[in-house]
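Dear colleagues,

I hope this message finds you well. In preparation for our joint manuscript, I am sending the RNA-guided endonuclease InsQ/TnpB family protein (Nonomuraea guangzhouensis) sequence together with its predicted structure, so that both groups work from identical material. I would be grateful if you could confirm receipt.
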Amino acid sequence: MAIRRSATKRHGLPTVVQLRLTPAPAQADALAAAVLLCNQAATLVSRLAWQHRVFAVVELHRLAYYEVRAQVAGLGAQAAVRAIARVAGAYTNRRSTKKRAHIFRPHGAVPYDARLMSFNRDARTVSLWSPTGRVTVPYAGRPDDLKAIDTLPMGEADLICRRGVWLLQVALTLPKPAVREPVSGFIGVDQGVANLAVTSDRVVLPGPALAGPIGSNGHVRTLRERRHRQRRRLQKKGTSAARRVLRRLSGREHRMMTGLNHQISKFVVREAERTGRGVALEDLQGIRGRVRAHRLQRRTLHSWAFAQQTAFTRYKAARAGVAFVLVDPAYTSQACPVCGCVTRANRPTRGRFACTGCGLAGHADHIAARNIATRGAAGWAAINQPHATGLPSARRDRESKPPDSTGGS
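The corresponding structure tokens are as follows:
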């Protein structure tokens, strides 16, 4: 049985808070000039990188630093360094899919690091670099976000102008809580197309358990089909008005699914925390390559958001100190959790499970979630098995690696 634990850095957990800036008109003009200049520099560096096929950050710095400083007037040294690192990051893992140099939008988000910004927490102001000098801008935000800014270590920030509103999205490092032992077992979550998530507690998500306008999985499918028909109709029309509507609708379905995945993962983790259990999900990595689908079903198959839902559940569980494991998905919907009988005949229809051995019957997704919960408990016990050294097996294996091991920390 393949079991994978959540992988998080030892020193803490990343998070992002959003602050709203209130610059004066002259300060807003200076920030707008900084955004335009940094994106212009990033586009120039990107063209150089593509032309010379140099994408590693160190080599790209040697190639482009002096040229971008010479060609982009007013660009500071650290702003040039961040532009080069930004270009290297844009090409990471995506070179094989690109057919031309990456172009940065003139008004796209611009990264600021500790050398380009500084906070005065008492005055609630932030000092930001601009081509004409530093600008000190007041900021505001939710009480929890302001408290996080005051107390947590900060990383980079993104400066964004969205519909005339200036925002600063700051990366913070949360303290990593200790993972609590799942004394009451695990909550299994079965992810699917007909039902986005079904837990071993018989809860179907989305559904009445979640607040909001989305009432059921059928509602989700109806909305997605409506968006698909609308996009296809507008693309076929091809007029300038149709393209304007497409731009306005761009990302709406993605935002809806992202919000749903946040709600589902939050519900699952809170329920696990409340009941003293862990969370077990299927390891669906590479599922698109393994599953064969009819051509009429391929759009549905390739629009799954399971990776995002898994990622959200993983980091929320790490924040709450809840145990999280990924289990082998093989035969979870064909195995009987009572007698262990595994056969395709146990699934007479897509949504129904009826064991040919002991007669257990129920909803197929709920039975799969029960099997996932069982595998999660077994896997957690295996990777935390005590040893003569007094350390759990997972920690013992990690600490027994030689210093020059490439396994990472």
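For the figure legend, we might mention the following. Residues 25-52 form the longest helix (28 residues). Residues 1-10, 398-409 have pLDDT under 50 and may be disordered.

With kind regards,
E.M.
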